[in-house]
């Protein structure tokens, strides 16, 4: 996966101030128990603006595992970004991997790492569920449901 850098100053500020609201489910690959996903949700924005996905990744294995790729049949682009603060401004930078420590977890949450979702392939609205395929360095791929929530539902 190539590294792309995108800056969405006003959108990143809006995303950074949203508060997490969990989706109570988990996804696991068939026959593999190393990685699981919990509290997966998407903060939907109107007018075909990019959405942002959030979740907690849990690693039950003895070795760190990297999230190395994200795709979706519901969106044309799904990219892992990190919000970076430069004092008085913020920008989003695409990252090529996110390490989930052994016997640990990582939060993909507002103001930090998030999944930028662009170019919805069909109408997506609050109340829907979209699926993201999360690919890991150990070969696992999780087809993970994300609950779509309006900005008002995330406060």
UniProtKB/TrEMBL annotation:
Q: Indicate the secretion signal residues.
A: 1-29
- Keyword annotations from UniProtKB, A to Z: Signal
Q: Its domain of life?
A: Bacteria
Do you know which Gene3D superfamilies this protein is assigned to? Answer: PCu(A)C copper chaperone (2.60.40.1890)
The protein in question is named Copper chaperone PCu(A)C
Organism lineage reads as: Bacteria, Pseudomonadati, Pseudomonadota, Betaproteobacteria, Burkholderiales
**Which InterPro entries does the protein's record reference?**
LpqE-like, Lxx211020-like, PCuAC_sf
Note the Pfam families from the entry.
PCuAC
